[in-house]
Amino acid sequence: MKNKKLSVRVILPVVMSVSIAACIITSMMLFSYLFSSYFEKDAVEKVDRQISSLTQSIEKEISSVNNLVNEIYYQDIKKYDCDNAEFKTIMKQQLSNESDRINSISLYDMDGNAVWSFGDAKNISVSSKSWFKNAERNIETIQYGRRRLVEPSLSGYVMDVSRYVEYIDHGYMKPGILLVEYYTEPIESILERYSNQLSAYCYLMDESNNFIYHPFELRMASGLYREKTVSAALKSNNYVIKSINHEEWLIERKQIGYTGWNIVVVNSMSNLAIENRRFHNIIWIIMLLIGAVMILLDIEVFRNFTDPVYRLLNTMEEFGRGDYETRAKEEGIGELKNLSANFNIMADQLQKQMEEIRQNEREKQKMEKKLLQSQINPHFLYNTLDSIIWMIHSEEYEGAAEMVSSLAKFFRISLSQGKDMIPLGKELEHATSYLKIQNIRFKDKFDFHVEADQKLMKYLIPKLSIQPLLENAIYHGMEGMYDDGEILISVYEEDGNIKIDVADNGLGMTEEKLEYIMHKQVVSSKRGSGIGVRNVNERIQLIYGKQYGITISSELDEGTTATIIIPKMEETDETE
Amino acid sequence: MKQSKAKHIILVVIIICMAIVSILYMRNRDYAQKNKRIAVVYPKNNQTMIQEVQEGIQDYAYDHHIQCDIWYKETMSSNDLDTLVEEEHKNQSMGILLVYPEKYMKKGKYKYGHVLALTDTMQPSFTYSASFSQVSDDTVRLPVDFDLLKEIKDGQRNPIYLENTYKLGYKSMEMIEGCVNKSHLSNIRLKPDKIDQGVLEKGSKASLFCD
Fold this sequence. Notes:
The complex is a heterodimer of chains A (about 575) and B (about 210). Chain A is of the alpha+beta class and about 575 residues long. Chain A contains 15 helices and 17 strands. In chain A, the strands form four sheets. A five-stranded antiparallel beta sheet of chain A has the order 2-1-5-4-3. Chain A has a five-stranded antiparallel beta sheet with strand order 7-6-10-9-8. In chain A, a hairpin with a 6-residue loop joins strand 9 and strand 10 (about 260-270). The longest helix of chain A has about 70 residues, at about 10-75. The model of chain A has no long low-confidence stretch (mean pLDDT about 85). The mean pLDDT of chain B is about 85. Chain B is an alpha/beta fold and about 210 residues long. A six-stranded parallel beta sheet of chain B has the order 2-1-3-4-5-8, with helices on one face. In chain B, strands 6-7-9 form a three-stranded mixed beta sheet. Chain B is built from seven helices and nine strands, in the order αβαβαββββαβαββαα. At the A-B interface, helix 2, strand 3, helix 6 and helix 8 of A face helix 1, helix 2, helix 4, helix 5 and helix 7 of B.
């Protein structure tokens, strides 16, 4: 489970997906930052253009007022005596022509007493007025005073525009102060062109930071609105972005030439950003879609990469478990396909080699069996035939006939049509024939008995399995005995297996001799069949497995019992 | 592999959710104004009287992007008001402002939750009303005569109190718009502004007197 978690199949896609997600998120953040910067720059530039346009218009208006004041001074006041009738006509004409801009024109001496005035001017002493003092102090420049209501109509605002002049009074040149009451309406008209909403507006302040124009003047006078951007505007050299009431505001200030006034444009940043928000949204969606597509591609690529590998891995596991027929599907990208193909080639080669090995093994086993079966000592046949001849010479025809009959049965069963496995009944018949032959040869030196469970006779046994044990019993057990020997063959079932005991009452064998018989290639003697006990044991184990075979128990002077243990196997079973 | 796919699906779902949330977030930042309506009923043929109030109402509507359903009435019965209230409710109006109802309605009992009466004399007739509180000194209303101001400025006359009808109109609209999130309106009692020599010299209220 732990290894599975560390699988390349999980780690790589997850790492790649996380990387893609991180890239997308980083790109989005970067994009948002860059776009915000761009929006801000764009907004500042836009406001800058607007404020420049307003400034130019106001400066143009100021310039035209200056020109008008200078024209009155240089073209009229300096030219004509103030008592001159023509002068008065010209001034009245001038006032009439500029009635939309000028409320009155007045001239005061340096004591503040009115010399003359045209329009709605008041004949009062003005020496204490700020415009008078400013003009007195700065004789070269035109002075702009505070804005005030038009009196007595209260129909609008005027501004006191003053300058130091020299006028002709009865032929004498005298110093004085010229006052022009200028309507501020043209300036207001210029500033009203700007979108004056709560989210975007502009205002104009004089040198003393008094409002010359503010779109929400009435609200301010009623205590319904308070301008909070003045100090921020005055502190900034150009523009500043300030948070007021949890909202970002772009405040840009520009000074009006000549007058020292300040025009301030205030814009809500949220209001400015709204124009570009749709584009911003589209980019966000596109980037998210790209992210999703990249992750899906990542899944597909890794699936194409890991699926063939895992299929190959499964195939290899099956192959390792012994399913040599299994083959990998040759699919995947490039080298992965070659990997499967090369595995298949390797598996083919391996299977071929294994088949060869198995075939060789089978051949070897067959050869061994053939070899074991073929180990029938020809001396047994010669001696038996000699015995028969001798019996004929001795006119023991019955014995000779019985011996020939037994020999014939012995060889018929030995051959058994080439079969390796024969029924237990046949094997016992073969063993009995052998014992009969040997009994005749040894002149009834031993007796033999067969006690067999007839139900077991149908089961198969490797051919010539009992005869070598009988041979041992005769040649190793009976040899040297003076009394008659006895050989007992018992066939019975025990623990689901068939047991065949071959017991003799001979001299018995030592441990060393038993060991020798069981583990050495012993051919009992030239008189025997030639098939050793060890060979029989090996044959049984080759056929049935290591848990079967022959066991021998022996006691000196008591006898020897050799036991064959085989499974119950009927003729229908596969025995080859 | 199934586990890996599930992880990818979760990741894709997260990204899609992020997209949806971002879009919703950006939409929430949309400053396009929602349709806000307030019905205003003025007395017919009393333009001079309502001029400053009207300006205050219009300025508030402009500042806060409110659409005003304007009605000029010569007379208005209780049934007419019922009908108007019903219609404006259907129009999803935030409320109704009756400007000087004494000019077109009879005194009575008009109990409506979203009707505010800007009135001098009919406060008892309505549940909610907007008017000026009483002061012991002289009071004036806009527009103010220049000579009066001059006398105050020159110190020839005691200070006066200005009943700022512009402000009353503005505040009345503010009250109706503000009551959207509240259960009910409340009364407005505006204190008149003191106009003395200092105020006139400072010029801070000059725009009120500008014609």
